[in-house]
């Protein structure tokens, strides 16, 4: 089997470089950024905070997912990404 070379000169079995940083946000209880090439995910932990009664689940933690594009306003695509992450983490 021959190795294919990608446009960025990586072999088919090579990943783009990854990085992780901790404590980026000063007002959060915890924060981190994970990056791979031009894609970054910034996550923060804040709390405890009050949850509206209609959304309260006393026996579970509440996770709020907000997806923001690098530039411009969030739209239907971003709402779909939020929904995917919420459903994936709902039973954790």
Structural class: alpha+beta
Strand arrangement within the widest β-sheet reads: 1-2-3
Most strands sheet: 3 strands, antiparallel
Helix share of residues? 10-25%
Please trace the helix and strand order, writing H or E for each element.
EEEH
The value of Rg in angstroms is 18 Å
Strand content: 15-25%
Count of strand segments: 3
Low-confidence stretches: none
Molecular shape? elongated
Distance between the termini: 40 Å
Mean pLDDT figure:
86
Number of helices: 1
List keywords for this structure.
1 helix, elongated, 92 residues, single chain, three-stranded antiparallel sheet
Descriptive overview:
The chain is of the alpha+beta class and 92 residues long. It contains one helix and three strands, in the order E-E-E-H. Strands 1-2-3 form a three-stranded antiparallel sheet, with no helix packed on it. A hairpin with a 2-residue loop joins strand 2 and strand 3. The longest helix has 14 residues, at 76-89. The termini are far apart. The mean pLDDT is 86.
Quick summary:
This protein is α+β, with helices and mostly antiparallel strands and 92 residues long. The protein is built from one helix and three strands; from the N terminus they run E-E-E-H.
């Amino acid at each position: 089997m021959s190795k294919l070379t990608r446009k960025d000169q990586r072999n088919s079995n090579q990943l783009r470089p990854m990085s992780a940083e901790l404590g980026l946000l000063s007002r959060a209880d915890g924060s981190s950024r994970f990056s791979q090439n031009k894609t970054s995910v910034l996550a923060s932990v804040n709390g405890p905070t009050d949850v509206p009664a209609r959304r309260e689940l006393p026996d579970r933690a509440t996770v709020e997912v907000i997806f923001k594009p690098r530039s411009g306003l969030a739209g239907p695509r971003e709402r779909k990404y939020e929904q995917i992450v919420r459903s994936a983490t709902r039973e954790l």
